Amino acid sequence: MGTLPSVMDLRLPILWLLLAAELSVGLRNVRVTVPTAVRRGDSAHLYCEYELEDNERLYSIKWYKGKREFFRYTPQVHPSVQVFSTVSGIDVERSLSNESQVVMRAVETNYSGKYSCEVSADAPSFHTIIVSGDMEVVDPPIEQPSVTGLQARYRPGDILRANCTSHNSKPAANLTWTINDVPIPPQYVKLYRPIKDSYTGLETSILGVNVMVAHDHFVQGKLKLKCAASIHQIYHEVIEQFIPEDRPRILATGVSASGHSINLYQGSVHESELTDQSDAYLTVNGYKADKSSPLSSSSGSLQIDSYVKVCWVTFYICIICTVMVYSIRYLMVT
């Protein structure tokens, strides 16, 4: 009676079988190239690459959107290219589609999704590998982004509040704010939820900004505010505005138009910005002119002239009164 083989005796043949099966796999290095984003109306090219051993043949190439097959290439079947209508709306360019690529014409927004390529080797292995990639069809805005809520001028210490809006796109545009080409920190911006048009499916994005203006924001007296809208590499638009600094106009008394005391020798107030003597802001009514003021000498002369006139009038009145008194006394004596 023969003896049963031991476990060690069975292990070696199994290892050899597994190694042989591994070496017999002739399909490898399957790679898929799916564009991340495509503009609505353009063509989309999807590529599927693979490697086969010399003793292996290709059985089929299948393309899926989601779980639905819409394209198949089978070299042993005539015609080798088959297009399925299971995925509504996909228009395949048959003449350009083959074992390595599939071309879709005039893509629409409903083409967005996951695309998978399934490669199968022929008998005897029928080894199959499937790889996937995501594609998004972009319907960009037809208008530039718009900025609302800005004042005409700002001073250091003022709060700059504004909204940047990008209208009607799919997906909603990504918005960013910059001052003098430097991104505004996230704590000073507010991202609103996109507004979706229930009829068209297009979305409007809004990004707010709320930041205190600093003296350093003004370069040569102007602040450069920029809002940029982008969608992948398909769409990029920028709206840029230069906002002047609101420097206070100086009164002849050294007081600003807002009533605050101003040092005329401060570096932030330039000589060219001072108004001339005929300006409506230059008035001495209710204010005491500074000795350095251009009106101080003229106002002093006016005060002296008025004093002289009063003295002369008083002198004439005294003479008239004296003459009248002597005339009355003379008449009473006679």
UniProtKB/TrEMBL annotation:
What are the boundaries of the signal sequence? 1-26
* Descriptive protein name: Ig-like domain-containing protein
- InterPro entries given in the database record: Ig-like_dom, Ig-like_dom_sf, Ig-like_fold
**Which positions fall inside the Ig-like domain?**
5-132
Q: Which organism is it from?
A: Anopheles atroparvus
Q: Does the keyword Signal apply?
A: yes
Q: Where are the transmembrane segments?
A: 312-332
Give me any GO biological process, just one: motor neuron axon guidance
Top-level taxon in the UniProt lineage: Eukaryota
Q: Lineage of the source organism?
A: Eukaryota, Metazoa, Ecdysozoa, Arthropoda, Hexapoda
Its keywords, alphabetically, are: Membrane, Signal, Transmembrane, Transmembrane helix
